[in-house]
Every structure is written in C-alpha cells, then in structure tokens.
Amino acid sequence: MNEENLQSVPVKCPHCGHNTFLDIDASEGNQDYQEECAACGDLIHVQLQVDEANQQARVKVDGNDEQFY
Question: Can you tell which superkingdom this protein's organism belongs to (predicted)?
C-alpha cells in the first residue's frame, strides 16, 4: 500500500457495532480481504469496488461467514 493513496473510511463492525476506521487504497483496484476489529477481535469481511470511470470507490463490510470462503 502506498501511503499517499490511503483514505480513511468509517465503518461499523458487523459483530459488535464498534465504529472504527479502515485505511483503503483504491489505486489497487477491486479488493476482497479481511480486517480485524480493534474492539472485539472478530474478522470483518471487506469488499472494495472501484469505479475508475467516475473516480469513486465503494466499501462494503459484513461478518466473516462461510460464504466468504
């Protein structure tokens, strides 16, 4: 990750409801990964969809469930 491209995005943990910030880098294109919640330690499934034509990025978070695997 290039620190120049990082954006801090507010999200709510789907497990405990804790508000936290994720650092995303939309310059890397679409991404699908997991982050650990700082409050409860559970894994958060993060999906980043980049619309390069409109220069927008959409972040979706949900619980780490079986459909991720």
Answer: Bacteria
Residues in the chain, overall count: 69
Among 43, 2, 49, 40, CA closest to 23: 2
Residue 17, phi-psi category: left (phi > 0), alpha (psi -120 to 50), beta (remainder): left
Q: Which residue reads 């310059």 in tokens?
A: 27
Structure tokens at 6: 């990082």
pTM of the predicted protein model: 0.78
Q: What is the DSSP string of the chain?
A: --GGGEEEEEEE-TTT--EEEEEEEGGG-SEEEEEE-TTT--EEEEEEEEETTTTEEEEEEEE--GGG-
Name residue 11's amino acid: V
